[in-house]
Amino acid sequence: MTHIPLDERLIVALDVASVEEARALVDRVGEAGRFYKIGYRLAFSGGLGLARALVEEGKKVFLDLKLHDIGNTVEEGVAAITGLGVHMLTVHAYPQTMRAAVKGKGASDLAILAVTVLTSYDEADAREAGYAEDVASLVARRAAQAREIGIDGIVASAAEAARIRAIVGPATHIVTPGIRPAGSDAGDQKRILTPADAIRAGASHIVVGRPITRADDPRAAVEAILAEMAQAV
Ligand code: C5P
Question: Which residue among 12, 15, 135, 142 is best mutated to probe the pocket of ligand 1, counting the most ligand atoms within 8 A of its Cβ?
Answer without folding.
Answer: 15
